[in-house]
Amino acid sequence: MVSIFITDDHPLVLEGLKNVLSEADGFQVSGCFANAAATLEAIGSEPPAVLLLDINLPDINGIDLVRKVKALSPATRIIALSVHNEYAVINSMFQEGADGYIQKNAVGEEIVDGIRTVINGRRFLCSQSAEIMKRKTTEGLKSVPKVTRREKEILHQAAKGLTTQEIAAVLFISPHTVESHRKNLMEKFEVKNLASAIKLAMEYGLIQA
């Protein structure tokens, strides 16, 4: 039996995936989790063969979690589950070690096919995401920028509408440091203002809306 973990903070999604996999031969859902912390703890104790992973979790973004899971259990195959279908997001997930990428509205057969594909050592893309990867438009060739923990905090606070001075007070840093981070973020996202960087960060799942 192929041991499978599912991590998603939406109970209906978890239940739907469990139902799909229960009807497939050779699969056993060994654990269901709503956040990254519980997932990592379980993998540290008994790694599954496959992890189905929602890339938008309340405590960490999927790109960072893929990296952590692979560090804990390199043999675990990871299939990202997402509502995002941008080239940059898909590409970055694979760069960090994901083995598959499936849209959340994919049919059950694609999910089962995806699991069988990755356990045989091959990458898997659902039909929608495969089409995006084929196009590779000029805009899509960008990867998700790598941002630091502090930069994510700046983005999160700025998304709440806080000013530079207010962010500095909340994070116990100087306004000059906040401005420096803002400048770095705009350069990393290749945009002219922080609002655009925040919008992209939300689209890429780096911060929550």
Per CATH, what is the topology of the largest domain? Rossmann fold
From the helix content, strand content and strand pairing, which structural class follows? alpha/beta
What sort of overall outline do the alpha carbons produce when their principal axes are compared?
elongated
Strand fraction: 5-15%
The CATH class label of the largest domain is Alpha Beta
* Regions with little confidence, pLDDT below 50 for 5+ residues: 137-141
Rounded mean pLDDT score = 88
The gyration radius over C-alpha positions equals 18 Å
Q: What is the first-to-last residue Cα distance?
A: 38 Å
Fraction of helical residues: 40-55%
The total number of structural domains is: 2
What is the N-to-C order of secondary-structure elements (H for helix, E for strand)? EHEHEHEHEHEHHHHH
Classified in CATH, the superfamily of the largest domain is: Response regulator
In CATH, the architecture of the largest domain is: 3-Layer(aba) Sandwich
**Strand order across the biggest sheet?**
2-1-3-4-5-6
Note the total helix count. Answer: 10
What's the story with the biggest beta sheet? 6 strands, parallel
Strand elements, count: 6
